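User: I'm preparing a small set of examples for a lab meeting where we compare how different chains pack in three dimensions. I only have the primary sequence for this one, and I'd like the structure in token form so I can line it up with the others. Please keep the answer compact; I'll paste it straight into my notes.
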Amino acid sequence: MTPTPPLQAQLRDFPEQFARSARFSRGRPHAFTVSDDGRRVLFLRSVSGTDAALRLWSYETGAAAERPLTEPGITAYTADARARHVVVSFPGGTLAALDTRVPGVPRPLPGIREARAPRLAPDGEHLAFVRDGAPHVVRWPGREGAVLCLIAPEGPDVAYGLPDVVTRGEIGREEGYWWAPDGSALLVARTDESAVARRWLGDPARPERPPRVLRYPAAGTANAVTSLHVVAADGSGVRAVALPERAGAGHPGAPWQAAEFTYLTAAGWDAHGPWASVQTRDQRSVRTLAIDPADGSACPLAEEHDPYWVALLPGAPVRTGAGVLVLPHVLADGTRGLAAGAATTPEGLQVREVLGVRGEEVVLRAGTDPTEVHVWSWTPGGAPVCLSGPGPGVYEGAVGGPTLVLDGLGPEGRTVRVTSEADSEADSEAAGAPRVARPRTAVLPSLEETPLVLPRPRHLRLGARALRGTLFLPSRHAPGTRLPVLLSPYGGYGLGLVVRARTWWAAVAQWFAEHGFAVLITDGRGTPGRGAPWEYAIHGDRLTAPLADQVDALRAAAEACPDLDLGRVGIRGWSYGGYLAAGAVLRHPETFHAAVAGAAPADRALYNTHWEERFLGDPAVLPEGYRASSLLDDAPRLRRPLLLVHGLADENVSAAHMLRLSAALLAAGRPHEVLPLPGAGHGVVGTPVAAALLRHEVRWLGRALGVRTRE
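Assistant: Understood. Below is the structure token output for the 711-residue chain.
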């Protein structure tokens, strides 16, 4: 058994481990596909916790272990419904095919290059992919037929089969086309970005390189125009889908109202036919439609309205085997649940995602407390049943037939289990006997690195709003010794950090704590898992309520742990967390004494339409919300140390946010520091910069708060 290194060595080596492991994510099984008969599970995993090269693996129910299907180096894969035919992608868009039942290396697909979004038809007979904005189809290797271009884009700003930047990054729709179950046709999205504003993204550290052009619709500006088309897989015809233009009479009124259906939020093609969901520009209405593939006509299935915004739920809507439509729905008490006809999930069970359906059973992720997310089974009209656990954690999953994959991250680390009643293919084909249900459970090894610094969280409920918080103290802290406090929140919409699991950010918090800080992470209003009213608190003002929650949590934590020194309080964060950190020292200098703000969206009007208009509306109609949420006007108030960090290649939160805030501070005569990261995007992951940045932060905060760190 390898002895545990002393604390000083752990602190010294942790940043490099954090960087090499890409935040302890390498070596983790992910991207699961479960065959529709439940007999086979496919997934990606690298060979160690520090290796970035992925290989494809297969596990067959009842087998002793998984087996590799490829060598390391693939980037993605697609499989048919039975997970028999598979196509893998390599860097540069080249493809190779394999049959999971036949040993051997993947066969390269000649003549295919720069292929994007490859996807096999459910029957495995055809492969589709997008090249140069055009969807192409080819028969499975060994079948006759050349590569066929189904439909060509009409101009350089038009693409078929690919989502635009906002749809992919903010709506969460990764797909741009969907196969019919029998492989005869595809439902294809057409995206026209000709009216979308351009941004030029250059690298100041390499001035000899030309800038990249990025289509980016900032709040209040033109979006991409999206339409739908039914395309025959043999190239014999294209039919436009008649999508609706405006929401119905139930659309809520507001000072800014944009009832035009602008966003294609979800689509699919199941056993009941093609369908789509569209959302208005102001996000207060979502309509789900059944599409007739014969003529492209669309019939409304449901329409949801909300006076604030209709929240989108990953995996929903979905239809059961009988065709019952399952939709996200806000219950009477504000719970974000599901509705299937007249049936709803119970109050208090906050639904986070729909994983799939098995007949009339819906498999979903949900929790009764925001610090835990479990996998549940729900049959409309019945009571949900928890499938994960026992014990706390954050669970994800994948389902196919009688097989369920449970990927759980708990306080002690990750466990991936496959539970199935499916016979193995060999058993079924060899014996020829009637199938007998025999539940089997297997564990798929996760090769993630164990953090050198293990989190030692103390979970708290803080203040009158019972804010969920986690406090990390130095492992050698002696009670009665005063500790400077470091807040390390995200605190924004859609992401909660306070969970009962060994996350990478908990390990980082403990690393900072071992340097002599008391580290506090708090999820305030706007974060998920506490219902719609909790989220609506940030409507019209993205900063005031979340900042008040951080202040309240700090004071309540000091009551629970008197060793917290409220005369020395720092705050650090990234993205919305960086925005919160900068806002803290600008607006509450009486409470916060230093801040590190990474990738902070300082000027909300620079951020994209779908995300920003959800909370603040159109800046031309409702400028007061953007002013209340901007940091630029607060620049003259700075009197505390502030370090601004930003990647200069950030496509999500442009470096212009940092530059504008720095310029406003400079114009106001307020000293501050700027740390630009050349070549870095929005996430500084898996690079040596990640290690160097951690070390720089702890030294900077130590100097600002008078702490002798161990660096």
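A couple of notes for your slides: The first strand starts at residue 30 and ends at 34. The mean pLDDT is 95.

User: Perfect, thanks.
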